[in-house]
Specification:
The chain is α+β, with helices and mostly antiparallel strands and 106 residues long. It has helices at 18-23, 25-35, 51-67, 71-84, and strands at 2-7, 10-15, 39-41, 44-46, 90-93, 103-105.
């Protein structure tokens, strides 16, 4: 599967093997458990992030993975989004630090 990640005017297609999208539930559950405690999303504290907000949080981590050239984390975060938001084709990540401005395309 491919998730197109757009940051500002740049498009980065990330190829994620289907077996990771379907088989990494332990990792995805660990991410969910961490986020279920609440999360600071830019200026707002969210007590119980919903699926879209969790994917926005993961997109923030994708930015960090890009900055650190961490391909393995990038693929795992993309797999999380593909797993939790079936049918998603692309994410438009706000590069200004506003997590809630990140949008998903189906």
């Amino acid at each position: 599967m491919i998730l197109n990640i757009r940051i500002e005017d740049q498009n980065y297609p990330v190829e994620v093997p289907d077996e990771i999208v379907q088989g990494a539930e332990d990792y995805f559950s660990m991410l969910d458990l961490d986020m279920s405690k609440g999360w600071q999303m830019s200026r707002d504290w969210v007590d119980e992030p919903n699926v879209e907000q969790r994917c926005q949080i993961v997109c923030d981590r994708i930015l960090t993975a890009f900055d650190h050239e961490n391909r393995k984390s990038l693929v795992m975060y993309a797999a999380y989004i593909l797993n939790r938001m079936p049918g998603v084709k692309a994410v438009n990540i706000d590069g200004n630090g506003e997590m809630q401005e990140t949008e998903f395309e189906f």
